[in-house]
Amino acid sequence: MAIQTLSFISLILRPYVEQPISTDGWKSLFAQVDPHRNFDGELMAFGTMSGQDMDTIIERLISFGYVGPNEGEKSDMIVSDMFAGTDNLPSWIELVDVSFFDEDQAPAKAWKMKNSGVYDLINFEANLRLPRKGYQCDWPPLIGKIGS
To answer: Where would a tag sit more exposed on the chain, N or C end, judged by fewer CB atoms within 10 A?
Structure first.
């Protein structure tokens, strides 16, 4: 899957990492999982309306054992807002352009793990039916519309 970008401050976490994560950390993350809105099986999204709330989320994730967003390639998370660029992303994540086959739906951007076989697009902000790559939408590497 891929997670559509949020219109406010967001944090994208890769939950499955090599270093140990505390049991309390796993419990906390699993308690917040919603596979239709914030967890695609590879990435987890957190959203806030303030930088202070985001700092609290980051501190909590670091206390669980995750590497913070300012650690370059070692980072297990990135912080994104509508003004942030994508020049200094760790190599495990990418921002892709999503186009929809329904021409009435505007294109979007989505976060996904690189080298992933993701096919569903989730939207943190709206509990919508999951568009599926090749059927309702497409993103690089493009596969086109299946069955047309």
So the answer is: C
Domain spans, the chain: 2-138
Query: pLDDT digit string (tens) for 75-112?
Result: 999 988 644 555 678 999 998 999 999 888 889 888 89
Which residue in this structure is represented by tokens 């989320």?
57
Whole-model pTM: value is 0.85
How far apart CA 48 and CA 54 sit, in angstroms, is 6
* Residue 2 φ then ψ, to 5°: -135, 155
Q: How many CB atoms lie within 10 A of CB 93?
A: 20
Tally the C-alpha atoms within 13 A of residue 101's C-alpha that lie toward its C-beta: 15
Q: 20-42 pLDDT, tens per residue?
A: 999 999 999 999 998 878 888 89
Cα-based torsion angle of the residue sequence 138, 75, 62, 51 in order, rounded to the nearest 10 degrees: -70
